[in-house]
Specification:
Blueprint lengths: L1 H45 L2 H5 L9 E3 L5 E3 L1 H14 L2 E14 L2 E13 L5 E15 L2 E10 L20
Parallel strand pairs: 1-6
Antiparallel strand pairs: 1-2, 3-4, 4-5, 5-6
């Protein structure tokens, strides 16, 4: 009986260790995605095209849905669009308001709210809150973004899950 108990104990310990390793891998992946978000914001704030583009997959299927009617497809088109964007502003300052990250195998996502302040060449300033959703894939062990959706809502309305739910009587 002692041998069987030892075998079961070793098996349970192995399963727990495997779970811990898997959890550590997920946490490491999530940290890498958070770093890519930070790198993109830093690249935009520094108006550094190489830093900004370093987070994107260098592939023809990369796509960015930008605020307004803009859609950029392909790495080269995206790089040209970022370069033009940087020339349009004397200064840009971005910061994270909140960030959520999830990973599953070789795919990951991040959605965030970001505060951006842009200074035009004439000195005028525009400040916007952006809602950004990014989708990443792991290629040869490295994460890169292949889909980004950036929107600027006309008005932010935060709905707290603790807020009372609407009822037919309230409508």
């Amino acid at each position: 009986m002692l041998k069987w108990t030892a075998f079961v104990g070793i098996g349970a310990a192995s399963i727990m260790a495997a779970g811990t390793v898997a959890q550590a891998s997920v946490l490491r992946d999530q940290e890498q995605i958070k770093q890519l978000v930070a790198t993109e914001i830093a690249g935009g704030s520094e108006q550094n095209i190489e830093k900004t583009m370093s987070v994107y997959c260098n592939t023809p299927d990369v796509v960015l849905f930008e605020s307004g009617p803009y859609v950029m497809r392909g790495y080269d088109n995206l790089k040209a669009a970022w370069a033009a964007y940087f020339k349009a502003f004397k200064k840009a300052e971005g910061s994270l308001i909140d960030l959520n990250v999830g990973t599953s195998g070789n795919l990951a996502y991040a959605f965030s709210r970001q505060q951006w302040k842009f200074t035009a060449p004439d000195g005028s300033v525009r400040q916007d809150e952006h809602r950004v959703t990014n989708v990443y894939r792991r290629v040869a062990g490295k994460w890169c973004m292949f889909h980004e959706n950036d929107s600027v809502p006309s008005k932010i309305v935060e709905i707290d899950e603790k807020a009372p739910k609407a009822t037919k009587e309230a409508e």
